[in-house]
TrEMBL record:
GO molecular function, one term: DNA binding
Active site: S20
Keywords assigned by UniProt, alphabetized: Coiled coil, DNA integration, DNA recombination, DNA-binding
Name of the protein in question: Cassette chromosome recombinase B
Coiled coil: 407-441
Length: 487
């Protein structure tokens, strides 16, 4: 309850006194002595505001977790205090950083801080100058601490130690990630739904929520949580640290060269091939959500063979005999394309026939081209890993030059970089294209689509098709081109 003086806008003067157990017998630090000196100072300055005493008896200044200090800070925050007084700075805190954080809080709430022994008063020019000097020293110390902490965490991350809370699908046991089998089953289901069933973030989240399957901390699934899970390399056994700059209010992703990436150091839930396939799909231009929910089989996939524009659904025919047609959007909206319209039922039938013919017409040349696409993607990923390994080593060189790490740390990083480069270059040399395996994979996926396309709801059928087909180009009567996206 607020006192009458507080209702009148008059704030109190807070006198803070503290002694620790080993200081009880020391002259000049007793609680009574501190109180008398502070009250005498107030009388000498002519301050007749109401005084409040905050006394921590038997507490050290190693941290700010003291009951009366916490009570004082709460009074400051709600506007009850105008001045905070101590006999010496070390009564408030022996740590410079803690002291400056407290003074920052006081200034934020327009409360002056006074230490009578050091003649320190933040309301005076000399007090503010002293505060600025102390602040500069503290900022330097904060940076040094941040460097040491970062280096320690960098060393731990480079050796595969997990440094944050466990992601969904895992739990922390003695600072090591261990698979949580019940959650891991949901992770595998999400990857399968996205990669093999063609479902989007919304459809996956909606289904899990409808089945009352909670995400971490019993929260509902969202588009963002599904996307983050699908793109998290932890599930293939890779640790990635220092990816985001959290020192600013708005978190920003750092350049990839600054990331700490350690492969094959964590228990895996998703095999690498599946994870990479999901990333390929994530990075491809997705069909707009409106087209995904369109009740037309090739909505969002069908392109005009004349101008390359998208084909949209229109209606044609007489009042009693209306039928769907696919029509070039550039023809319909801009008049810049001269292509004709095509009956939708016929185009969709041609598409199904084309899928059936695909498995019978795969030449070695086509299979080789598809396999080379996979190899090229893998080589690009390997090049990125090599660049990251070299960037990590260069940072270690800088740290060693600055005296932040020992020579053995630098040597270990050099060995790690050499091992990564050697392993990836060896992988590229021994890559063999298994055409039979590629053909079986294609036939399996096409067969799955063909066998279920007529039995699924349109939305589910379109999702399944999107796992196999990147786009369909219509060039003329019964002439279509199907571009696959299975790699």
């Amino acid at each position: 309850m607020l006192r009458e003086s507080e209702f009148n806008g008059v704030r109190s003067i807070a006198l803070y006194c503290r002694v620790s157990t080993d200081e009880q017998a020391r002259e000049g630090v007793s609680l009574d002595e501190q109180q008398e000196r502070l009250k005498a100072y107030c009388r000498a300055m002519g301050w007749n505001h109401e005084i409040e005493l905050f006394i921590d008896d038997g507490y050290s200044a190693k941290n700010t977790e003291r009951p009366q200090l916490r009570k004082l800070l709460n009074s400051v925050k709600i506007g009850q205090i105008s001045k905070v007084m101590v006999t010496k700075l070390d009564r408030m805190s022996r740590k410079l950083l803690d002291l400056l954080n407290l003074i920052d809080l006081f200034q934020e709430h327009e409360v002056s801080f006074i230490s009578i022994s050091e003649s320190f008063d933040t309301n005076t020019p000399s007090g503010r100058l002293t505060l600025q000097v102390l602040g500069a020293v503290a900022e330097f110390e904060r940076e040094r601490i941040r460097e040491r902490v970062f280096d320690n965490m960098l060393h731990a991350a480079s050796n595969g130690k997990w440094l944050t809370q466990s992601p969904y699908g895992y739990q922390l046991v003695e600072k090591n990630l261990v698979i949580n089998e019940s959650e891991a089953a949901i992770v595998r289901r999400i990857f399968n739904s996205y990669l093999h069933e063609g479902k989007g973030y919304f459809a996956i989240a909606k289904q899990l929520n409808e089945e009352n399957i909670p995400s971490r901390f019993n929260k509902e699934w969202s588009l963002r949580s599904i996307k983050l899970l699908l793109s998290n390399p932890v599930y293939k056994g890779t640790l990635v640290w220092n990816r985001v700059n959290s020192s600013k209010k708005k978190r920003q992703e750092k350049e990839e060269e600054e990331w700490v990436i350690v492969d094959d150091c964590l228990p895996t839930i998703i095999d690498k091939e599946t994870w990479e396939a999901v990333q390929n799909r994530l990075n491809k231009k997705q069909i707009p959500s409106r087209a995904q929910s369109s009740p037309h089989l090739l909505g969002g996939l069908l392109k005009c063979g004349n101008c390359g524009g998208g084909m949209s659904i229109s209606w044609s025919g007489s009042k009693n005999n209306r039928y769907r047609v696919y029509r070039c959007s550039n023809n319909k909206n801009k008049g810049t394309c001269t292509s004709k319209q095509f009956k939708a039922d016929e185009v969709e039938a041609w598409f199904k026939q084309g899928l059936l013919q695909l498995t019978k017409n795969f030449s070695s040349e086509i299979l080789l081209k598809l396999s080379e696409q996979t190899t090229d993607n893998r080589n690009i990923n390997n090049e990125q890993k090599i660049r990251s390994a070299k960037a990590r080593y260069n940072r270690k060189v800088e740290a060693y030059t600055a005296g932040l790490i020992e020579l053995n740390d630098l040597t270990e990083e050099k060995q790690r970089m050499d091992q990564i480069i050697e392993a990836l270059q060896s992988e590229e040399k021994h890559q063999e294209i298994d055409l039979e395996k590629v053909q079986k994979s294609i036939e399996s996926k096409i067969g799955n689509v063909v066998n279920t396309i007529d039995t699924l709801p349109i939305e589910d059928a379109k999702a399944l098709i999107s796992t196999l087909v990147e786009k369909v180009v219509i060039k003329g009567e019964k002439e279509i081109e199907i571009k696959l996206s299975i790699f």
